[in-house]
Amino acid sequence: MVRCRKKAEAKEVEAKEAGAKKAEVKEVEAEDSRRGNGLKQIALIKGVSRVQGLLVKKGNPKNISGLKDLPYISYINRQRGSGTRILLDYLLKKADIPNSKIAGYDREVTTHMAVAALISSDSADAGLGIMAAARAFDLDFIPIAAEEYDFAIPKKYVELPLVQAFIQTLKSKEFLDELEELGGYRYEHIGEVVWPTF
After folding, report:
1. How far apart are CA 142 and CA 159, in angstroms?
2. Suppose 73 and one of 10, 24, 125, 159 were both cysteines; which one would form an S-S bond, judging by CB atoms 3.0 to 4.6 Å apart?
3. Residue 31 in domain
4. In the chain, which ranges are continuous DSSP H helix?
5. Residue 193 pLDDT more than 90?
6. pTM above 0.85?
7. In terms of Cα–Cα distance, which of 82, 48, 50 is closest to 151?
8. Is residue 116 in some structural domain?
9. Cα separations in angstroms, 27 against 17, 33, 36, 37, 175
């Protein structure tokens, strides 16, 4: 009798657990569906592609051609968490270059301009940054990678006058002239509205 009761209790517990698991699975599936539906409601307004590259002294006296040269020179790095640092770490890993082999990898500054200033003053041979910083300090620039910057917006807002004005500003000659002056930006598809499929 006791044995039968225990079996019945065990089956009841199993049934409850199975029911709870089914409920959890359904909840997760519903959340995934909500997220998926949310993503389907998003449009992308194409922005710019920003080129990151190695900033080096004018004339490139160390003949630096790319990341493979970093273990043989002195480097100045961006701070942990910055987009430039994340990009560098990703590219180093991809190229199988250990950061421990780079003199200056642990030497950090917080802006592209600070990187350029230290290279300009002979405190480092190279650092990853943007062309505008290289131009500001009359340095050479070796392109390494491009980053895409787009604008996500709910589809239902795309036709709003404010959003349309923003798109026209992105495409305007004045804005494109500013990008040209800064240097290091590509904008072939700027202002185009893309409807991603997920």
Report:
1. 40
2. 125
3. no
4. 2-40, 83-94, 112-120, 131-136, 161-171, 173-182
5. yes
6. no
7. 48
8. yes
9. 15, 10, 14, 15, 47
